[in-house]
Amino acid sequence: MYIDGAWIETRKSFASRNPATGEILGSVPDGNEIQTRAAIDSAARAFPSWAGASAYLRSQLLFRAWQLMIERKEELARLMTEEQGKPLKMSRNEVVYGADFLQWYAEEAKRVCGQVIPSPRADQRFITLRQPVGVVAAITPWNYPMSMLTRKMAPALAAGCTLVLKPAEATPLCAMAIFKIFHDAGFPPGVVNLVTAFDPAPVGAEMVANPLVRKLTFTGSTAVGKRLASQASAHVKRVSMELGGHAPFIVCPDADPVHAAKGAGLIKGLNTGQACISPNRFLVHRPLVDGFVAELAGRTRKLKAGSGLDDTVSVGPLIDKVALGKVQRQVDDAVSKGAKVECGGHRLVEDGLDKGCFFAPTVLSGVTRDMLIWREETFGPVAPVIAYDDESEILALANDTEYGLAAYVYTPSLNLAMKLFEGLHFGIIGVNDINPTAVAAPFGGMKDSGLGREGGAEGISEYLETKLGGFAIS
Ligand code: ADP
Q1: DSSP class of 402
Q2: How many domains does the chain have?
Q3: Which residue's alpha carbon is at the smallest distance from atom 23 of ligand 1?
Q4: 180 and 43 fall within a common domain
Q5: How far is the CA of 232 from the CAs of 140, 236, 354, 403, in angstroms?
Q6: Mean pLDDT of the chain
Q7: Which residue from 12, 22, 344, 348 could staple onto 30, CB 3.0 to 4.6 Å apart?
Q8: Are residues 366 and 261 in the same domain?
Q9: Of 83, 94, 206, 242, which one is the catalytic site residue?
């Protein structure tokens, strides 16, 4: 753990494992509410001088962290592949994406401006300041174990906040590597603090209850996010919640089904389906279904699963056995209600894959709304295809979910694209585009998918308060 500028050991520790092989990668301090309190105290002590430092100084340190992250790209990517499982090429992409947040917010730190607002009274002036909210508590997931940290840390630090972060128990070594960067970049003691823990509950409880914490930023499941948000409301703490998703992937009647299937295969394969923006329902106009399924299943069958350190592998393991069980249950439920397995549908155990948590990339056709997979987030490599008959059904089908994070639309028609862009209840819409995300763009969801946005100018606003001054002059 990293508290008040020093690396701390505890008597208890827990192991981090490689999900592709089950091998133990390292042992990590097992923290609880005591270390969390110490970390929050340290962040609170560091806050006045960090908030009072010039934006230029904060910017320089973030730039330095960006440089170090890029310099360490290969070692970070390798560690990520070993601890989280994604293929090395994808890990490299994530390191660069994660580093981008440091660079972008190093620039944005210098652009936090207030306003001078005209008053209705001649003897009055209105001025607003934008000031950091205070100590931030951050909780991050395992699926993007480096970029989800920098996506929170960079804007918080740029704004002038100090922070305490608890990473997912499955990927603590990735978090330690990121904090080593902040240490080496020269961030003052207490500005960034890391608490690792096998049991997240006591750490989370301290974060939401401690009055010194003014903001909670969480990325993870909807169930945990809702609980933390409701506890944080007791102190009227600000919250940002980036939660689950159930993205529709809509193939419109005028779309090219082969082109759409190519995009579908790429986005569904991302991180073995373990992404909150992963498409979870492929809504395809009935006359296009055969062509779409043939192309998607053909591409899916060719994917090779295995250790991400092998260059020929494009499908990594699921994070653990619980994840395997959930995916299998959804597939079995769909099949028992009439879905057809076009490819995959089972755990992979040949050639040593039984040591890890591998599920065969799967395409299901004939999926209907009574199946679990229609409603539950899968977080695995399963593409369920649902046929619809008329364009007029699209919006009702696509919006039939508690979630509202990402949606994808394939159509050459500008008119239809605009109609769906406006009518879909999701925070991110990819129109003929499977990658509608970037550091400069606001990322976040509606409904049960969350509150607030990360990335871009909106991302730093989450860590700023607006203060109004009314000046009476004579
Ligand atoms: P997932 O199903 O993706 O693992 P979780 O919501 O369980 O999603 O985990 C996301 C993050 O939330 C992780 O860092 C995890 O440790 C943390 N977490 C889980 N339960 C709690 C809790 N009760 N209090 C605080 N953090 C929690």
Answers
A1: S
A2: 2
A3: 201
A4: yes
A5: 17, 6, 42, 22
A6: 97
A7: 12
A8: yes
A9: 242
Look at the block and give the residue holding tokens 């050991």.
9
| Same-domain pairing of 399 and 335 | yes
Assigned domain for 401 exists: yes
| Residue 452 vs residues 111, 312, 446, 467: alpha-carbon distances, Å | 20, 38, 9, 20
Q: HSE (CB half, 13 Å, CA atoms) of 207?
A: 28
- Give percent above pLDDT 70 in the chain: 100
Protein residue whose Cα sits closest to atom 19 of ligand 1: 200
Please tell me whether residues 238 and 255 are part of one structural domain: no
pTM over 0.90: yes
Phi, psi of 462 (to 5 degrees): -60, -20
Q: Judge whether 295 counts as a catalytic residue.
A: no
Band (405; pLDDT cuts 50, 70, 90): very high
Residue with tokens 């090219």, as numbered in its chain = 256
The catalytically annotated residue of 161, 174, 252, 276 is 276
Judge if 202 and 300 occupy the same domain: no
Structure-block tokens of residue 336? 């028992």
pLDDT tens-digit readout, 323-354: 999 999 999 999 999 999 999 999 999 999 99
Ligand 1 centre distance from Cα of residue 74 (Å): 28
- Report the separation in Å between the CA atom of 169 and the middle of ligand 1, taken as the mean of its atom positions: 8
How do beta strands 446-447 and 464-472 pair? unpaired
Under 8 Å between Cβ of 358 and 317: yes
**Is residue 143 located within the same domain as residue 253?**
no
Whether residue 397 is contained in a domain is answered as yes
Using alpha carbons, select from 90, 116, 105 the residue that is nearest to residue 151. Answer: 105
CATH value at residue 24: 3.40.605.10
Biggest CA–CA distance in the chain, Å, is: 84
Contact predicate 319/273, CB 8 Å: no
Q: Which of 14, 16, 139 maximizes ligand 1 atoms within 8 Å of its Cβ, making it the mutation to test the pocket?
A: 139
**Alpha carbon distances (Å) from 448 to 209, 230, 297, 444:** 23, 13, 31, 11
Its domain, for residue 6, covers: 2-243+447-472
Residue 441 forms part of a structural domain: no
Does one domain contain both 184 and 204? yes
Give the model confidence (pLDDT) of 2-52 as tens digits. 999 999 999 999 999 999 999 999 999 999 999 999 999 999 999 999 999
Find the mean pLDDT for residues 71-83.
98
